[in-house]
Amino acid sequence: MTTRYGYLGPEGTFTQMALLSWTASHEGEHVPFGSVDSALDALRRSEIDAAMVPIENSVEGGVSATLDALASGDPLVVIGEVNVPITFVLAARHGVQRADVHAVGTHSHAWAQVRGWMDRHLPHATYVPTLSTAAAAAGLAHGEAGHGYDAAVCAPVAAANHGLEVLAEDIGDRAGAVTRFVLVARPGELPERTGADKTTVMLFQRDDRAGGLLELLEQFSVRGINMTRLESRPTKDFLGSYCFSIDFEGHVLDERVGEALMGLKRVCAEVRFLGSYPREDGAQTDVAPLTGDADFSAARDWLRSLRGT
Amino acid sequence: MTTRYGYLGPEGTFTQMALLSWTASHEGEHVPFGSVDSALDALRRSEIDAAMVPIENSVEGGVSATLDALASGDPLVVIGEVNVPITFVLAARHGVQRADVHAVGTHSHAWAQVRGWMDRHLPHATYVPTLSTAAAAAGLAHGEAGHGYDAAVCAPVAAANHGLEVLAEDIGDRAGAVTRFVLVARPGELPERTGADKTTVMLFQRDDRAGGLLELLEQFSVRGINMTRLESRPTKDFLGSYCFSIDFEGHVLDERVGEALMGLKRVCAEVRFLGSYPREDGAQTDVAPLTGDADFSAARDWLRSLRGT
Amino acid sequence: MTTRYGYLGPEGTFTQMALLSWTASHEGEHVPFGSVDSALDALRRSEIDAAMVPIENSVEGGVSATLDALASGDPLVVIGEVNVPITFVLAARHGVQRADVHAVGTHSHAWAQVRGWMDRHLPHATYVPTLSTAAAAAGLAHGEAGHGYDAAVCAPVAAANHGLEVLAEDIGDRAGAVTRFVLVARPGELPERTGADKTTVMLFQRDDRAGGLLELLEQFSVRGINMTRLESRPTKDFLGSYCFSIDFEGHVLDERVGEALMGLKRVCAEVRFLGSYPREDGAQTDVAPLTGDADFSAARDWLRSLRGT
Amino acid sequence: MTTRYGYLGPEGTFTQMALLSWTASHEGEHVPFGSVDSALDALRRSEIDAAMVPIENSVEGGVSATLDALASGDPLVVIGEVNVPITFVLAARHGVQRADVHAVGTHSHAWAQVRGWMDRHLPHATYVPTLSTAAAAAGLAHGEAGHGYDAAVCAPVAAANHGLEVLAEDIGDRAGAVTRFVLVARPGELPERTGADKTTVMLFQRDDRAGGLLELLEQFSVRGINMTRLESRPTKDFLGSYCFSIDFEGHVLDERVGEALMGLKRVCAEVRFLGSYPREDGAQTDVAPLTGDADFSAARDWLRSLRGT
Q: Locate the Prephenate dehydratase domain: which residues (chains A, B, C, D) (predicted)?
């Protein structure tokens, strides 16, 4: 049976590019969704087998829709990650010149990444928000008079897909901008341990614990575990109530990770395990001295001998 | 001379409501801006004297545009805060019924807060992003055919301002949703110390320090200081490079706060001080034992006597 | 076969009093030794089955001879503890008056505890060190001219045993002085877990670990474990090289203690487990929230479910 | 006027050797005392100007008498330190052979350091405690029949002083044994800052503070200060009540030390400052990154600018 991969569509989004770069997906079917939520809901309902969604951008930060969708509802886990360089073009219908552009359509995250260029080159253009960068291109290509903008900021592939002309290339304010995408699945067999793994969790604090975040971070530090991302998200209960979305180096099958997770499970109101998976860059985890599996095993054997068990 | 207060407009936004609830502003002039950036730029250029901008929402989390605009450029400081309960209505032009609604316009943050209601009551309506909730209402009121949506999600005041009819009230998925706004000014005289103060900083880590975030948080904990918000934001340099926007209890004139700030200044690559200001709720800071000004003064006097200075 | 209990003798020492108050020993044979070392050596050679030795005095601190003897050589473990109130008398042969006392014999630790009294009442008396307080009494009773002192500072029972007259009672400078003794045995079956237990360890740091003692103490604090005694002892390798003798609340069979011991085992050069045993005062350990066995078991079950094992 | 230096006598003790190696004392008068207490009392009464006393031995650990005498009573401060290699000889009167030795006199600390040698070479010799190693030699030289021992363990100089014959040289069980002595004075001008300094303090915990020792050590670690000695001493109030004698690198005039001391002053029940003084070995303190005086000054200037003061 064909594996079905959902992604944040429509065609031409950076998310689709992420999915295309996931080799294993080439055998499967690719299904676009209009939102992260709808893709993950379909995954939960088993209508698809996996979903590629953005989680973190080097300029705009965490992707709230993804973080929140993973944080509640039936459990899902990350099984892989893909980093995609983000390059924006300014695209328009055939015949439109840069001087003709009075309004620009794109997704708000993309807009945030090209404002410097816009200030310098099209200071009088107004901004029209769209649902995605690809939707901005599509709207331009297929739209009638009323879509309200003369040019779109989108990925080069989206401009090409829709037969638009590129008025300016590589207009992002930050060279080297990257978005990190994750491939999400229903819990099942864990991805194999490679020594170059990451684990993602969502931590909810107890109200009655002083120290709070510091206490949580110590669970990592006493086991020599390095965090690679920490994002606070509102629990939505009241202003100032936050939970923490965290990526750290290591696999749930690593001893130090297992002990840290148990520590977090004890001190947190809830720990949501969101998967262990190989890093895209393949960088082997630099295991801190005395925190390797052999160190933990030796300690456990010693404890057993003390206990006479 | 009249004080000029900027705000994230247009009229009818929740930000305007925040400014209206700031009593001191009633004597001044209120100037709408199209974005947080443009308001803060005007403030930096001294075209206005203060700006009210959103910083944190109980459902959607930190407001990236504000956090990032405060984190770079000429220094600005927060001088006050206002919390505004967020209530959404579904509004349309006279004569439109709920059954006629095929597309809904609103700001993406508002859409995120009413999706549950929409799924239950208008499951087939498509979403059209707009620049603000007030802009959605305005577009509906003044727009021609092409604006692309039949109803707007906005504040009750925006619906009233634009003569729209309310099709449904209080449609937010979370009762009690609140947005926190801050009044920003150029650095000048510090707001007076009230004993019920908050301080806001942006912390940039050094690359060469192990321990990272834990080391920063310890600077607070060893002085008994309580954090009320921590938000990570990308430095935009590369994926995985983050800085931290933090609110904590206390005023820069408090001894314990001064010492913590000096500690942070030493261990961070950069500390951006973003102001000390009275809490809106007036809740007096519960100063941890042995961290009051008198404790610090006594310790300093003792040290002086040891040093013979 | 009769159980043989060694103790730091001769008869009449506080150590003998400790052994006498250990009810289980009443059925056994009591064997005095001239030093802690010789008692523990006899225990290691299986010539005796247990040894009562002093470990800590409320005025003089840790008993180095005991701490060092436990820290090296074949492993021994503490299986019980006894606290004995320390009361000193000034005793002399029949007919000797206080005014006749020119020199006082006693153990140096006892002398340290009565110096205030001596300064006030016998300021001109010189001090003659003896091997134990009981030895001072014995020397006085049986000695010839040459023993060199006219009165002894000893336990009331030692004065009585040797037919000495008490010239002054309760002459300790600190009311409520107490010595804590431990009953030591060869490793065997662990004393039962009572919920009111202590565990004793000796920790040797690695040279190559920064942070040092702080890192060790964190292994306790992250599991909510309370230390009741910390004593540094030279490793004897070079000046400034120390190891740490530590008592803490809990039993090696407690989950939180097991995990803390494993953590210490990993980060220390060596951990010497010196036993888990019931507290004499029977005070139930106040287990910190979220550190009980049930909390650890639940966390372990959860981890197993994540790992699918 | 001649400076008067007290020391723990009599002549021939290792303490006298320490004083002799303190060059500045060569111009002054040297006054022996029978105990550490009596020397420090004379210093407090201004009968002498300084006192050399032992504080730490590489085999036997802290010298309780010194630690306790510094911890209470009128304030005294350490102004210098001297390390003396400890070498023991077995000495006897002319004509006595090793085979004739049935009893050996020496100070209990010395006895602890030669027991291995004794076990191997004079296993049947009994131990007779004396007030000091020099006193053992003196007793042997001048004593009548009754002194009770045939040989003394003492410093080579003491044997020579008293015309004794050396039966065995260098009989310490640990090669390289060292005792550290400190020169104590009444508080006055601080020793100059050399960059190779130590500071000594005695810390008394508050009963009402959880965390205890960990909280104290963090005051050092957050300022990058390295401890070189930690010794717990009973407060003498009740069993299990301890205070901590601590040496650490740096001078009270160093910024990081000043801030750490202020932190300790706040969280401790009492901090007894026992002096800042140059290390004997002249090893420059390896100041941790970002904890130098310049770092603290820059941070203070920055805070002042924030405060507008």
A: 4-186
